[in-house]
Amino acid sequence: xxxxxxxxxxxxxxxxxxxxxxxxxxxxxxxxxxxxxxxxxxxxxxxxxxxxxxxxxxxxxxxxxxxxxxxxxxxxxxxxxxxxxxxxxxxxxxxxxxxxxxxxxxxxxxxxxxxxxxxxxxxxxxxxxxxxxxxxxxxxxxxxxxxxxxxxxxxxxxxxxxxxxxxxxxxxxxxxxxxxxxxxxxxxxxxxxxxxxxxxxxxxxxxxxxxxxxxxxxxxxxxxxxxxxxxxxxxxxxxxxxxxxxxxxxxxxxxxxxxxxxxxxxxxxxxxxxxxxxxxxxxxxxxxxxxxxxxxxxxxxxxxxxxxxxxxxxxxxxxxxxxxxxxxxxxxxxx
Amino acid sequence: xxxxxxxxxxxxxxxxxxxxxxxxxxxxxxxxxxxxxxxxxxxxxxxxxxxxxxxxxxxxxxxxxxxxxxxxxxxxxxxxxxxxxxxxxxxxxxxxxxxxxxxxxxxxxxxxxxxxxxxxxxxxxxxxxxxxxxxxxxxxxxxxxxxxxxxxxxxxxxxxxxxxxxxxxxxxxxxxxxxxxxxxxxxxxxxxxxxxxxxxxxxxxxxxxxxxxxxxxxxxxxxxxxxxxxxxxxxxxxxxxxxxxxxx
Lengths: 335, 248
Known about the structure:
The complex is a heterodimer.
Chain A: H1 10-13, E1 24-35, E2 45-57, E3 62-67, H2 73-80, E4 88-93, E5 96-97, H3 103-110, E6 113-116, H4 120-123, H5 130-140, H6 146-159, H7 175-187, E7 193-197, H8 205-217, E8 224-229, H9 232-238, E9 241-246, E10 249-254, H10 264-270, H11 300-306, E11 312-313, E12 322-323
Helix pairs in contact in A: 5-6, 5-7, 7-8
Chain B: E1 8-16, E2 21-30, E3 35-39, H1 46-52, E4 62-69, H2 90-99, E5 108-111, H3 115-118, H4 125-133, H5 143-153, H6 170-182, E6 188-192, H7 200-216, E7 220-224, H8 228-234, E8 237-240
Parallel strand pairs in B: 3-7, 3-8, 5-6, 6-7
Antiparallel strand pairs in B: 1-2, 1-4
Helix pairs in contact in B: 4-5, 4-6, 6-7
């Protein structure tokens, strides 16, 4: 239904170079937070936010991270941007080490890797106009002279449909317009990578489309993009690949143009009305979805409870379809 | 009290702002144990319509035409609440607001959009529930037990009663707001986009809970929703607002 509003698919619009050096290359990523209880003497609780995430983003590619609140999407995106250090694992951006590198060495590269926040109003200066926001970004981060910045900022805002709103203050703009200012600020820098954390939350469906059109339609052709989202229509229409997360792990990786998700939890995520929603808590050992899973029966149940399934190629799927499930994609060596 | 009488009967609702018409000629009924969904694009007047059903009108010049009845409200079932208000401007709307104060929070309750910010941040969930329970026609002797039952009904543990809203996650806050909305045993619950900001799985859980709880209590539900998938699954009636005069 939504496909009809876009004449061509994301694959046709943004060809991906699969053989090129990846923009983002994440290996064995783990992140553990230590949460302090209410009092200084209360024990600190370990929160395993990310547990063994691996993926790449190729030039041109838009990758969606989907999952419920608390599944680790935001932590992964913060680590990719270098706002958080991984507990274990490695992040390389454009082939160069990124995690664990001294800030002095990273600072010059940061301008290429940009972030679109969820709360646009909170990210804008209430006293600056749309134009001033973009000009400031271009002079401070982009190193342009103020005359150059003025022209380029005007041009970018015009491309995002804000040509008539250059002198509007954030409070005078609608939610969609505010978001497009945050996008203009990021896109004017010709980023190599954009991480967008739920850029459309709180907008109605029509405005969501226009914000994504502004973001993905104006992304440099060889730049990568990680889109964190709750909205499965968005993931379907705007992303080359979807990574579904549960309890800090990627449980399925699928290209929605060629296949549908098969993991029972991923299917609930994509169509919550298709099956009873999990009500109980997630399992702490083995597959986190095990207590609510219809596939964990007979001989498999013990395995599902004991071992965390690894992300294996789905036997009946295409090359890029991987799923973490003992029933659907058993480990090759154990079968 | 016949079970079939509508809880709300709205006819020809038209609300104007100074320069444009916000809502034009909207009519519907909400029945006990039924879900009526109010859908439409942003700016179509969904919230305005829902608020009008609670006699909350705060636009200038405001209500131009329309009739509002609460047919299930005993002796006052035939009262047209908008009778002295249509076309009379802000002062008349405020008199109506004052006149119907006792109905809100008792006959009709409201479950807000952003639960986290709509709950009183300085009062525990238990205290807010106790205040809502006190609005019943016959308040129960043991409010503590009643609070535990209400929390259990929305899937929250008893200790949540001692928590402040800021200590709850988004889904828990939404459940707490729902418990507060049903605490006075209302006849009608109005839920304004209860799914906002929740992930798809939680969204379904909250909506299902909302319907389940309303139906078990014999209440009617007027639901505002953006999500077609939600409306398709749970609504008995759908009222689509066309969205003329939208801001953008």
